[in-house]
Design a protein that fits this description.
This protein is mostly helical and 382 residues long. It has one domain. The protein has a two-stranded antiparallel ribbon. The longest helix has 34 residues. The radius of gyration is 20 Å and the shape is globular. The relative contact order is 0.20. Keywords: Acyltransferase, Membrane, Transferase, Transmembrane, Transmembrane helix.
Length: 382
Amino acid sequence: MYQGLYRFILASMVVYAHLLPNVADVGKAAVAGFFMLSGFLVTRIVNGRYSDGLRGFGIFVLNRALRIYPTFWVCLAFAFAAIALFPTVAANTNPRMVLTSDIGEIAKQILIFGQLGPEGRAPVGWISVGWSLSVELVYYLLIATVLGRSKIATALWLVFGIGTMTYAIGNLGLDEAYFSYLYITLVFAIGAALHHFGEWFDKVFSLIATKGSPKTAIAAIALLLAYVFWQEPIGIYIYLETRSMDEIARVLPLDSIWIFYGTLPFAAFAMWATLAVRVDDSSVLTGSKLARVSDYLGELSYPVFLLHFAMLIMVTGLLGGTGGQGPERVLWHSLVAIPLVYILAMLVVRFVEQPVQRLRDKVRDLTHGKVADPRIKDVQVP
């Protein structure tokens, strides 16, 4: 029941990371949380509702396309407008948010695929986080066809993921590992393993917490946030004292690859705890009203994830600013943009996502596979 709240918190972490002058890698940790959640939920539904062979796979692909693309294209149009109106602000705010006449790059913006390649992110990204959707889409297909279809496949995948993580820690920097299909694979694999080997996770996590308890879910989210954010107050204090990012980097580990991979146990615990809470009107913390609020916040998470940079560019341009990166930005421009991101996301949910959801429900009913636990919502990217 808390899945929506969890996704909303992850999306808000990305907004914080990109719009406020954070000093660590809060956004990277949040995206890892999204990837892990997708690994679990996609594995769950392709072994449940969409398990009836080629028919199920075809309906799965159609349903995923309806989930991803309509909202993405609406947000892409908003981002294009922001960049076209304020090109200098856009380039100063995010160097990848620039217009181009290259047909191949334009196609990547529309189709999503290709926004992350062997050399890293594409040079153009009207929705700067679109590369992560490219990763999501590739893993949707891999999980639905091979990696998530059996316990053996997922176990081998998990071992492979541990191997790539070990190599990355010893040989790569964080960005090389993060902006990659290969070295991020462990994150998705852990999510898939939570489906296939849930009883093992239950034994491990139940040693420290009570499964299904809302207090456990809240504590799990708090632990994740504490681990991810612990550097922030220290870094902000140092910056205010010295105005030097170099001094922050000297004192704090910041973008350590160890810290990034270290978030995975916390993210797995948070996911296990939030997914286990069931609707039960005997308690306010598990009541149906709170469940509906959580579901709605989950609906907001995807457009919030997509819109935040474009909204910052639009607000900065309208207020006469020139943009900038990190601490270079005018703080109050971000403070104006943030609530507008959530308001615009509400409009997208109302006029795009909810009508499309009704179509998706009809498409989903075409399947002949096993129906998954209805108390766990269908997968929804950030």
